[in-house]
Write a structure and sequence with these properties.
Layout (H helix, E strand, L loop, with lengths): L3 E7 L2 E6 H50 L6 E5 L2 E5 L7 H26 L5 H4 L9 H16 L7 H11 L4 H25 L3 H26 L4 H4 L7 E2 L4 H10 L4 E5 L5 E6 H11 L5 H4 L6 E3 L4 H11 L3 E5 L5 E6 H13 L8 H5 L6
Parallel strand pairs: 2-3, 5-6, 8-9
Antiparallel strand pairs: 1-2, 3-4, 6-7, 9-10
Helix pairs in contact: 1-2, 1-4, 2-4, 2-5, 5-6, 6-7, 9-10
Length: about 375
């Protein structure tokens, strides 16, 4: 995720922290410092960090079950409102998604149960509900937070776990795409409820409402792409008109191509047209600043960019792009010659075409009528 930095790795999963989390810690420090000085500020920071340990354990609940079903999890990103575990692919069956989604809240149930056992009868449920009371003990407040995390995450709206539980339940009775659309619509409706209530009570609900609405919209769009990708070939929608860079080119020549086109990704090929790597606009600017315009592109290019055959399903291209967290996928023929590119931008354009064509649009029908000698 953009604007995040890695702080460590656990079991092959990178732990990343979004910069806004650091801003949250600074805000917590200042608020508590104004109330009770340095001791209060330290106590406030310690409590927030304890909460996010619980959030990390929550995310590893998802990860443990996901790995059981063969789904890899490259990283977790900690945000001020919780954590996000990135899955390399979506679960294949509704039952798998249900179990992966429910595993996180169950971890918080276990944490709250352990803390309540440790507290015994010294604290009642009425006190635990008041988690903002600084007079309440550390463990009691932490137990209350975990109970809140269970209830909050089970709200039936994306990106909360409840939204995925709802989709899994619906997908057992309808198509995955339709189930996602229904769950996303419910989530968007709840987002408006959060925003409206926030106007009169807690402004934080407005922020949560915006976040839920955007997440539900993104999930619906992803479902549309996944639904379409099953029936479309990469060669039907790939970019075929683009500038290439020879392996002998320099950053200076890359700049010329950058200014002469609207491209952001430039494939690097050898003399026979075989794909070697990819140079992005950011790569060009960074290398121009750090090492100058004479730098060879082969030193600046990315070599971990995936390739896909032009006759593969679009779904395979999307999977490779997501797994590698790559800005593009190089499309090749049977001889590994570069014949096209798949980028996030042209996938977005494909979805715009589909949305505008009310009766549907048959992608690639013109290309199939005019076979390209290169492929």
């Amino acid at each position: 995720m953009a604007w995040s930095f890695k702080i460590g790795t656990i079991g092959g999963t990178a732990i990343r922290v979004h910069v806004t989390f650091a801003i949250l810690l600074a805000w917590i420090w200042l608020m508590h410092y104004r109330i009770g000085g340095t001791p209060a500020a330290i106590a406030g920071i310690a409590f927030v960090l304890a909460i996010f340990v619980c959030v990390v354990l929550h995310e590893f609940g998802h990860i443990a079950v996901a790995r059981h079903f063969g789904v890899k999890t490259p990283d977790i990103t900690l945000l001020p409102i919780g954590g996000v575990a990135r899955l390399e692919r979506m679960p294949e069956e509704p039952k798998e998604e249900f179990l992966i989604a429910i595993a996180g809240p169950l971890v918080n149930v276990a944490i709250a149960g352990i803390l309540l056992l440790l507290l015994g009868t010294t604290v009642g449920m009425e006190q635990i509900q008041d988690i903002e009371d600084p007079q309440l003990g550390f463990l009691a407040r932490l137990a209350g937070v975990n109970i809140f995390l269970v209830l909050f995450n089970l709200i039936p709206a994306f990106p909360m776990d409840g939204g995925r539980v709802l989709r899994a339940a619906l997908a057992s009775r309808m198509s995955w795409s339709r189930a996602t659309q229904v769950a996303a619509t419910i989530g968007q409706g709840l987002a408006f409820v959060f925003g409206f209530v926030g106007l009169f009570y807690n402004p934080l609900l407005i922020f949560i409402g915006i976040f839920v609405y955007l997440a539900a919209t993104a999930e619906a769009q992803n479902a549309q792409i996944r639904d379409l990708s099953d029936s479309v070939l990469v060669g039907d929608v790939m970019i075929t008109e683009f500038a290439r860079l020879e392996r002998s080119a320099s950053i200076d020549e890359a700049i010329e191509s950058l200014l002469a086109t609207t491209q952001r990704e430039f494939p690097v090929v050898d003399g026979a047209g075989h794909f070697m790597g990819l140079l992005t606009r950011d790569d060009i600017i960074r290398n121009l600043k750090d090492s100058g315009s004479a730098t060879p592109v082969v030193q600046a290019m990315r070599q971990d960019v995936p390739t896909v055959h032009f006759r593969k399903r679009l779904e395979e291209s999307l999977r490779l792009m997501q797994q590698a967290n790559s800005p593009a996928v190089a499309v090749v023929d049977s001889h590994n010659h570069l014949v096209g590119l798949m980028t996030h931008e042209n996938i977005g354009e494909m979805m715009m075409v589909r949305a505008a064509a009310a009766g549907g649009f048959r992608f690639g029908h013109l290309r199939r009528g005019k076979p390209d000698a290169r492929i």
